[in-house]
């Protein structure tokens, strides 16, 4: 039988095995998806796309020209959602604040002479970002009103803009999405070689050696299956990130393909290395878990590594996941990379990890063969 | 010409000598059984023949080929069912056969093998959900998918119930009909006796004895055990024992209640005399039997060890 046909058969068989293994579905898809959704909900500002809203109540105890004017102006502030369309009395507003039904209560001046706008918040939320924001908006609002009353145009204005190297609208959601994609592809490799341990333990490797099958083709077939799984992971996570959380992508396909290809190979090589000296599944899983957890937090998957203490920085500059996630971000959100030296430097380090891990793994397997009972 | 020639095999693991000196040859079409206690060197010997272990010294020649020079050619000619019966658990019976078939330049149709191992009705079942007997049959099926000349079956019936064991025997007999050579190892004497053309008893890394089952039993001893059970009380047995002790063909006797055991070098002669006496006295004999010597007796005689199951 020709190599091509044998490879097709081996690929087909390993595809079937992967899709029939429920564990693969859980760890490769559901787990990263759940993790990503949790992180995005907690740190990504929910599904509203980051737009700020605050619910308020307005108290107007005594209608007068000033309070009418301020009320009308307040209605123009779109980020305020009025709990009740009309102003309410003080008692009602107090109850709402205590029950946290509203974020804040604004008390309009009771007479034309009083030039004071009162802001009431729940004591528990005094330091919350929402309170700070409402305070800021009100300050701005009062200032604008003052200018309007005085009839002057403000001379200076501040306009804030966050800048990243690439797309202007890089948000935490984009950062996290690409991090999760890199993490799940890497974990696919780190955990995926558990089959090898199982095959050796059950004697399947030995059984295959009694046939003329080319083990190299078996390995290539297995890698092709990993690439398919990696593509499925990228597609699923991207779809959820983009449509569920409004992530913005700037794809650079050639950068993405290079990073994905080298990264998948490197992390599978690491898995292969773990499998070469693990006598049991438990030993292998322990090893893969340690590696995965260390890298997850030290490689800038969830948070940028720039925030790490100085002594920790060199560690993240050694780990392969750092370079993999950077490469994937180059290809997915920065929309650049393939032309820069920095990108290729990262790919080279990633590749070196892969080659060294595979080489050591192969040596251990070769040596182990001689010691088989 | 012999299809398998094994000469002067030796293998040590550290200080442990697993195989000290094993030589035999197997003719095409034979069922050749290797028996021996655990640690006798059976598995090591098989693995050296199958190319999984390199002997410290000695040669293995399969169909005129050697592992060092023609490993792929040998792999096309042999089929192995290892003790662990490892296969792809998540694939179905038929997918396993198909996949293994793709490893060889020439192979049988999966359907043909399914028929032979009687798994046609379970072809779509995943290996995971097969019973022990079905698994074992599939393992044998995988060994014969390439239509090999020699098939190695390493303890194919260990741990199976009697019916499942019989199914495996049927397969071995079918293989023999097809003119295949089978190298078998087993724990069951009955199996070796029933299936083999020749039996090789291995102990402590050496061949203790090698011959046809019948010849081995013959060579062991001429004594046969004759059992009689009397209907009319203990006295009949006591009287008959007295008479039997006087006979020249009887070596020794033993009695337990109405049951009498005689060890005779000529059972027919002995029984003739015994029945003459009982007829004269009018003693009624309920049961008579001559126990067959089994390979188990041979094994114990040659190795001095109890047979363990």
UniProtKB/TrEMBL annotation, chain A:
UniProt keywords, alphabetically: Membrane, Transmembrane, Transmembrane helix
GO molecular function per UniProt: ABC-type transporter activity
Chief place of localization: membrane
ABC transmembrane type-2 domain mapped to chain residues: 131-368
Lipid bilayer topology: Multi-pass membrane protein
InterPro entries named among the record's database cross-references: ABC-2_transporter (IPR052902), ABC2_TM (IPR013525), ABC2_TM_bact-type (IPR047817)
Record's keyword annotation contains Membrane: yes
Name recorded for this polypeptide: ABC-2 type transport system permease protein
Gene Ontology CC terms: membrane
Automatic annotation (TrEMBL), chain B:
A cellular component annotation (GO) from this entry: plasma membrane
Primary location: membrane
Residues annotated as domain ABC transporter: 4-229
Keywords: ATP-binding, Cell membrane, Membrane, Nucleotide-binding, Translocase, Transport
Superkingdom of source: Bacteria
Matches recorded under Pfam families: ABC_tran
One MF annotation (Gene Ontology) recorded for this entry: ATP hydrolysis activity
UniProt-annotated location(s): Cell membrane
Record keyword Membrane present: yes
The family this protein is said to belong to: Belongs to the ABC transporter superfamily.
Protein name in the entry: ABC-2 type transport system ATP-binding protein
Organism field: Cohnella lupini
């Amino acid at each position: 039988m020709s190599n091509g046909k044998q490879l097709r058969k081996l690929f087909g068989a390993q595809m079937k095995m992967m899709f029939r293994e429920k564990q693969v579905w859980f760890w490769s898809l559901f787990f990263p998806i759940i993790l990503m959704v949790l992180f995005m909900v907690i740190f990504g500002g929910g599904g509203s796309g980051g737009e700020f809203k605050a619910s308020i109540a307005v108290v107007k105890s005594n209608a007068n020209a000033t309070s009418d004017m301020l009320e009308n102006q307040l209605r123009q502030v779109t980020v305020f959602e009025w709990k009740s369309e009309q102003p309410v009395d003080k008692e009602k507003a107090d109850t709402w604040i205590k029950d946290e039904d509203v974020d804040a209560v604004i008390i309009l001046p009771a007479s034309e002479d009083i030039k004071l706008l009162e802001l009431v918040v729940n004591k528990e939320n005094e330091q919350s970002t929402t309170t700070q924001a409402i305070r800021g908006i009100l300050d701005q609002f009062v200032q604008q009103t003052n200018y309007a009353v005085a009839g002057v145009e403000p001379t200076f204005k501040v306009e804030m803009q966050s800048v990243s190297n690439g797309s202007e609208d890089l948000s935490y959601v984009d950062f996290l999405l690409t991090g999760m994609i890199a993490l799940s592809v890497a974990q696919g490799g780190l955990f995926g070689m558990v089959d090898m341990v199982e095959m050796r333990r059950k004697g399947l490797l030995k059984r295959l050696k009694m046939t003329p099958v080319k083990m190299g083709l078996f390995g290539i077939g297995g890698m092709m299956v990993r690439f398919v799984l990696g593509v499925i992971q990228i597609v699923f996570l991207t779809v959820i990130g983009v449509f569920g959380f409004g992530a913005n992508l700037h794809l650079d396909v050639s950068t993405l393909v290079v990073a994905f290809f080298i990264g998948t190979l490197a992390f599978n090589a690491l898995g292969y290395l773990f499998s070469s000296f693990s006598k049991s599944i438990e030993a292998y899983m322990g090893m893969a878990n340690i590696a995965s957890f260390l890298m997850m937090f030290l490689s800038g998957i969830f948070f940028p590594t720039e925030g790490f203490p100085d002594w920790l920085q060199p560690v993240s500059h050694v780990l392969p996941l750092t370079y993999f996630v950077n490469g994937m971000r180059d290809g997915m959100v920065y929309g650049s990379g393939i032309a820069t030296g920095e990108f290729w430097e990262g790919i080279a380090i990633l590749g070196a990890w892969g080659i060294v891990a595979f080489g050591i793994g192969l040596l251990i397997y070769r040596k182990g063969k001689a010691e088989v009972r | 010409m012999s299809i398998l020639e094994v000469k002067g095999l030796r293998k040590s693991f550290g200080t442990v000598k697993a195989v000290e000196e094993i030589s035999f040859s197997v003719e095409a079409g034979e069922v050749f059984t290797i028996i021996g206690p655990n640690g006798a060197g059976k598995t090591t010997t098989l693995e050296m023949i199958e190319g999984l272990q390199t002997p410290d010294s000695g040669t293995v020649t399969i169909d005129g080929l050697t592992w060092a020079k023609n490993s792929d050619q040998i792999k096309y000619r042999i089929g192995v069912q290892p003790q662990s019966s490892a296969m792809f658990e998540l694939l179905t019976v038929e997918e396993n056969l198909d996949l293994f078939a793709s490893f060889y330049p020439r192979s049988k149709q999966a359907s043909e093998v399914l028929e032979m191992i009687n798994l046609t009705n379970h072809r779509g079942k995943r290996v995971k959900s097969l019973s022990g007997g079905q698994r074992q049959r599939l393992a044998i099926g995988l060994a014969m998918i390439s239509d090999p000349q020699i098939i190695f079956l390493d303890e194919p019936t260990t741990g199976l119930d009697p019916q499942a064991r019989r199914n495996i025997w049927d397969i071995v007999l079918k293989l023999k009909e097809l003119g295949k050579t089978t190298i078998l190892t087993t724990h069951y004497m009955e199996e070796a006796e029933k299936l083999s053309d020749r039996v090789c008893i291995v102990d402590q890394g050496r061949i203790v004895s090698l011959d046809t089952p019948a010849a081995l039993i013959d060579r062991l001893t001429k004594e046969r055990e004759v059992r009689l059970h009397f209907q009319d009380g203990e006295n009949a047995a006591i009287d008959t024992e007295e008479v039997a002790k006087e006979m020249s063909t009887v070596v020794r006797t033993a009695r337990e209640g109405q049951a009498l055991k005689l060890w005779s070098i000529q059972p027919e002669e002995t029984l003739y005399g015994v029945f003459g006496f009982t007829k004269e006295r009018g003693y009624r004999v309920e049961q008579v039997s001559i126990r067959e010597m089994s390979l188990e007796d041979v094994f114990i005689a040659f190795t001095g060890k109890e047979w363990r199951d």
